[in-house]
Task: structure prediction
Amino acid sequence: CTDKRVNEITKTLFNVADTPEKMRDIPLGRLEELIHSAGFYKNKAKFLHNMSADLVDRFDGKVPNDIASLRSLDGVGQKTANVVYAVGFNGQALAVDTHVFRVARRLGLADAKTPEKVEEQLKNDIDENMWTDSHHYLLLHGRYVCKARNPECEKCIIKDFCDYYQKSLISE
Result:
């Protein structure tokens, strides 16, 4: 679901359960009701419940501050671990969401077929001190300019360096 939807859901959810202990103790059915609008709510509720129990049991109720430990939590994949590490702990990580994946490939920064491989390619070409900022630049560019269905190339300040734009000029 969208970031906007997640923010709406968490506002309500955290009013009910604002600690891992409280989240773990919510009946699964109630948790499903609270996050229903996120889609795939049954799986997400199970992940939230198991992750919260893990946080309590394995990490003393605290969110771990390294990517490997974050990835060990139920329902946390590479993208989420990178976002939490970068935003929550000011670490350098390059999360590849749908926007970053699309924009990196359109610009010609990467050509891999999976987010994990695109992440690898970007990390090889971007200085580590810029990983987190680069994620945000690419994400925002994809959200507001290089949109999935109708990229606004005429508004784009980097179109002269963009593979997608250059190919569209050739095909005209």
Remarks:
- The chain has a mean pLDDT of 95.
- The first helix runs from residue 3 to 16.
- Residues 25 and 49 are 8 Å apart (CA to CA).
- DSSP finds ten helices and no strands in the chain.
